[in-house]
Amino acid sequence: MLTSEKSHSFPDMSMIILLTDGRPSSGQLDLSKIQENVQNAINGSMSLFCLGFGYDVDYSLLDTLAKQNDGLARRVYEASDAALQLQGFYDEVATPLLLEVNLNYPGNAVTDLTQSHFRQFFKGSEIVVAGRLQELETNTFQTEVSANGLGDQFLVEGLVIAEEWDSVFPDQEYIFGDFTERLWAYLTIQQLLDEREKCSAEDKEDITAQALDLSLKYNFVTPLTSMVVTKPET
């Protein structure tokens, strides 16, 4: 009875877990073709989670495959705690709480939103969405969070009260400037880098330029930028 109840405590979710300990060595060897074949085979019907073992694994390929198919990739290193690393991966994906999570904001209140739709929400994870507030006639607006739960639709509505930052945190100082704005920029950059892995060659150049501009503007070290350290002359 207890086992039966536990097995139906969370919504059903289809997923594929790919385990590999190396690089493609037989059959189709072209990486771009492998990505295309996997994406066509899954066709958005489920998420792909990739688990690579050892130091020879092509983690970049696994990461791209996972991002293209709404999953995540993890590497298990050859060490005495390999079992703990596997347990950590299992804990990440074992308990889906919500599926097809959408965070909705009125278009006249918020712009430049980061990702606001998430294929799944797992126990122990978190969701962060950032955007820019428009000039509002009032300081309140309605928000909505919807998702698919266990056999039912999950819906939460709330009223957001927008207050001036200086009145909420009058004494807060941050060495790099506005922390909230930098958080939005960081999430946007990460989102653009993820989109770059999924998009066509025609769109890749434009997305790369957007991510580079934000990285330089907000002084983030990313795969598109570098950090230069200068030592004072002695």
Outline type: globular
Structural class: alpha/beta
- Can you count the beta strands? 9
- Give helix and strand order, one letter per element, not per position: HEHEHEHEEEEEEHHH
Give the DSSP E fraction (strand runs of 2 or more residues).
Answer: 15-25%
CA-to-CA gap between the ends?
A: 75 Å
| Major beta-sheet overview | 4 strands, antiparallel
**What is the alpha-carbon Rg in Å?**
21 Å
User: How many distinct folded domains?
Assistant: 2
Give the spatial strand order of the biggest sheet. Answer: 6-4-8-9
Number of helices: 7
Average pLDDT for all residues:
84
Q: Which segments are poorly predicted (pLDDT under 50) over 5 or more consecutive residues? A: 1-6
Helix-residue proportion: 25-40%
InterPro entries: ITIH, VWF_A
Protein name: Inter-alpha-trypsin inhibitor heavy chain H3-like
Domain VWFA: 1-93
What is the compact description of this entry?
The protein has 234 residues and is of the alpha/beta class. Helices cover 35% and strands 23% of the residues.
Fold blueprint:
Elements: H1 2-7, E1 15-20, H2 31-42, E2 47-53, H3 59-68, E3 73-76, H4 82-93, E4 96-104, E5 110-111, E6 117-122, E7 132-133, E8 140-148, E9 153-161, H5 165-168, H6 179-198, H7 201-217
Parallel strand pairs: 1-2, 2-3
Antiparallel strand pairs: 4-6, 4-8, 5-7, 8-9
Helix pairs in contact: 2-3, 6-7
